[in-house]
Amino acid sequence: LRHTRVKDLLNSTNTLHEVNAKGWVRTFRNNQFIALNDGSTINNIQCVVDFENTAEETLKRITTGAAVSVTGDLVESKGAGQKFEIKVRKLEILGDSDAEKFPMQPKKHSLEFLRENAHLRVRTNAFGAIMRVRSVLSFAVHNYFQQKGFVYVNTPIITGADAEGAGEMFQVTSLPLDNLPKNEEGKIDYKKDFFGQHTNLTVSGQLEGETFAMALGQIYTFGPTFRAENSNTSRHLAEFWMIEPEVAFNNLDDNMDLAEDFIQYVIKYAMDKCGDDLKFLEGRLLEEEKSKPQAERSEMALLEKLNFVLENNFKRVSYTEAIDILRDSTPNKKKKFQYLINEWGADLQSEHERYLVEKHFKSPVILFDYPANIKAFYMRLNEDGKTVRAMDILFPGIGEIVGGSQREERFDVLVEKMKALGIDEEELWWYLDTRRFGSAVHSGFGLGFERLVLFVTGMTNIRDVIPFPRTPQNAAF
Ligand code: 4AD
Ligand code: MG
């Protein structure tokens, strides 16, 4: 008898004779009721053990975390909250779990504790739900682009290019650490550490993606990305997943339309497919909110917040307008608001972004036309000579979720910009070929996948939405 997934048993339209389920014990009550979870759904199936006819030895081994196989009939449940349960005829312990030692006790654990046990936290309700939502969202990403005829491109993980020019790269070496090539001064020569070449882990697949967009028209990447920035925030990871569409002949407005449509599609998709998980996560959040002072509680519950994003257009605001709003919002007498003052030309800090999104517009915001000197070299220069066709999408509770731009398609302007920034033209000879041969207007953006998962699940720390987070404190496990 092959086992049936718990989700399918619970969704059955009728009672069933002789079914088998396999999973892990969440709880065992009154020597009789097993709450069994197999990861197929947030919901456990209740399995009623015939304790009078089961050996005492076996009953003792039904502990939280143990793997079991139950065989019996799927019958209507008298218990509240569940339609069916399994009346167990045969019970088999597949793998014991020492009740004293198993770290995932049936109680609420702190997120910090769970992070230290990333290999086991997925056995909790919350992390099971988060990881299922994450999986569905990544499928939604592919669905969206595939339906629109985009080509999925796997850009390299090991590369010589610093796409963002921010110097936040992890070096890759093929040589034993004590045998790295040295220069005349006796210092390690990183220019030659990968079989004689210089390489690092990719910070973005954009530049390679652009070369494909200039042949295939519309492409997207979806892969791991690495940033060696030492920022210990709840929004940054050293290893994260990024989705980067790139489209030939799209200008910045087209790029905004695409980003907005795409984000709304994937959120809607997750809401349609992950109802139970999102309802559970919403409940978890409401519980957490209760412990906060009234003023700090969020105004919307999770599903309401997601619906809001689906039903309202993102506000499109230029950087210059945003600076004006921030200046006006700053009553200069009241010292405590002074952090909101900002000068034209400065990069926005996260408190500025949060003010715009959460206090001023109360909606997702697309900021565009940033000062050239705070953005990457490849963005298209505007007629004013000082701003570029950049766009960042800011989300409530998240801040920047998307960074993108219309690209500088003019060879001479691009080369001049690279010169000014000291970017080696020879190293990027292949990138410049896109502008040498058949250059055209094109645009793209990068969506940080974990920031999207954060938003959809209502979690607040990015370490809690990726299976094994890589951060400055925790890279090895
Ligand atoms: O703004 P970023 O650095 O843009 C790029 O990399 C462009 N090449 C994208 C493009 O135009 N194709 O990164 C894009 C997004 C950010 O908006 C953010 O959501 C996410 O990637 N991101 C991070 N997510 C988690 N941890 C980090 N350290 C991140 N850095 C960026
Ligand atoms: Mg950015």
From TrEMBL:
It comes from the Bacteria. Its main location: cytoplasm. GO terms for cellular component: cytoplasm. GO terms for biological process: asparaginyl-tRNA aminoacylation. Pfam families: tRNA-synt_2, tRNA_anti-codon. GO terms for molecular function: asparagine-tRNA ligase activity; ATP binding; nucleic acid binding. InterPro entries: Aa-tRNA-synt_II (IPR004364), aa-tRNA-synth_II (IPR006195), aa-tRNA-synth_II/BPL/LPL (IPR045864), Asn-tRNA-ligase (IPR004522), Asp/Asn-tRNA-synth_IIb (IPR002312), NA-bd_OB-fold (IPR012340), NA-bd_OB_tRNA (IPR004365). The keyword Acyltransferase does not apply. Residues 131-467 form the Aminoacyl-transfer RNA synthetases class-II family profile domain. PROSITE patterns: AA_TRNA_LIGASE_II (PS50862). It is an enzyme of class 6 (ligase). It catalyses: tRNA(Asn) + L-asparagine + ATP = L-asparaginyl-tRNA(Asn) + AMP + diphosphate + H(+). Keywords: Aminoacyl-tRNA synthetase, ATP-binding, Cytoplasm, Ligase, Nucleotide-binding, Protein biosynthesis. Its EC number is 6.1.1.22. It is found in: Cytoplasm. Belongs to the class-II aminoacyl-tRNA synthetase family. Homodimer. HAMAP family: Asn_tRNA_synth (MF_00534). This is Asparagine--tRNA ligase. It comes from Flavobacterium alvei. The gene is asnS.
